[in-house]
């Protein structure tokens, strides 16, 4: 989507651009620069729609981009190329390894903290029948 179209749609909502920028946590200058862009990302469009409490479709409706978002039911979506599958599998395996190490570290921390707590309980209450594990 073109930034000029986005700006016109926002202006028709009668919201000050400084307020829109504030809600987006960006400077008014940054917002003006976005309006100069020939390609507004879908992510930014979603952020804007949330900031002004309007649907994404509001910004697309009546523009040349509307047809791109309205797919007929008989469209067959192409499967992603198989060349990316090994990269995804490698990334998944690396993530699993990292998570397994983190779990082990957390278990070690838990055991260490349990020993500290147990030793403090024994020091406070030496006459009790409390036994360390």
TrEMBL record:
Pfam families in UniProt: HTH_3
Record domain HTH cro/C1-type: where: 6-59
Residues spanning the membrane: none
Record GO terms (molecular function): DNA binding
Coiled coil: 89-116
SUPFAM superfamilies the record matches: lambda repressor-like DNA-binding domains
UniProtKB keywords: Coiled coil
Protein name: Helix-turn-helix protein
